[in-house]
Amino acid sequence: EAAVTQSPRNKVAVTGGKVTLSCNQTNNHNNMYWYRQDTGHGLRLIHYSYGAGSTEKGDIPDGYKASRPSQENFSLILELATPSQTSVYFCASRDRGRDTQYFGPGTRLLVL
Amino acid sequence: DAKTTQPDSMESTEGETVHLPCSHATISGNEYIYWYRQVPLQGPEYVTHGLQQNTTNSMAFLAIASDRKSSTLILTHVSLRDAAVYHCILRVDIASSSFSKLVFGQGTSLSVVP
User: Fold this and answer.
1) Contacts of A45 in chain B (CB under 8 A)
2) Using omega within 30 degrees of 0 as the cis cutoff, is the peptide bond preceding A8 cis?
3) CB atoms within 10 A of CB A49
4) Are A90 and B101 within 8 A, CB to CB?
5) Residues with Cβ < 8 Å from B58, sequence gap 6 or more?
6) Nearest CA of chain B to the CA of A34: how many Å?
7) What is the pLDDT of residue B106?
8) Alpha-carbon gap: B76 to the closest alpha carbon of chain A (Å)
9) Are A103 and A32 within 8 A, CB to CB?
């Protein structure tokens, strides 16, 4: 079973501060994704990556940056956090052979 | 924007078979239908997916209408552990790339009573 881990699991940040959310997968999947989940919107795609060194904008990239320094790690960066970025963030990696995305447990971010 | 429509909630009794409907009236020919489920404080978990033919696995049976405008996830002999939000999702190709993304809707919250 594919394993995707996220850290931290919970985070409280202040408005204007920098926040980094980390994701790690040990399945050697090339494709990785960051989503956010808010009540009334389901999961929405923020950034994705084809592989190490690549990042691409998803559907709602404003206010977020991403970094993929290695096959295993994919980070989501909020340079200047705002209360509207309070949400639950999920990372996923994709098994192209099975055409299936595997999700991490999520990070709950509260921006005060 | 979500491309699928599901009822907000459904209820079932342990041991019964439950049919979870999903409408995707604007689906394109190459878009796959995926189902994931999610319990509180966890990420979505893959259930099944299909393109045109019905599919079955250890978790569920997916029935896809012949015109592909709707599908139904069928769970047999449900238990309390099947209580979750069930997401009906379309896999959409990203233009000018070989990448695809999952477009989530709101999902159906399934409750199971003893």
Assistant:
1) 101-102
2) yes
3) 21
4) no
5) none
6) 11
7) 85
8) 23
9) no
pLDDT per residue as tens digits for the range B32-64? 999 999 999 899 999 999 999 999 999 999 999
The residue of chain B with its CA nearest to that of A92 is B43
Strand segments, DSSP code E, in A50-106 are: 56-57, 65-67, 73-78, 87-95, 100-103
Given a cut of 50, the residues of chain B with pLDDT beneath it are none
List pLDDT tens digits, range A60-105.
999 999 999 999 999 999 999 999 999 999 999 998 888 889 999 9
Residue A110 Cα to chain centre, angstroms: 15
Q: Is B81 helix (H, G, I), strand (E, B) or coil?
A: helix
Question: Sorting pLDDT into bands at 50, 70 and 90, what band is A9?
Answer: very high
DSSP code string of B37-78: EE-TTS--EEEEEESSS-EE-SS-EEEE-TTSSEEEEEE-S-
CB contact under 8 A, B46 and A99: no
Residue type, A24: N
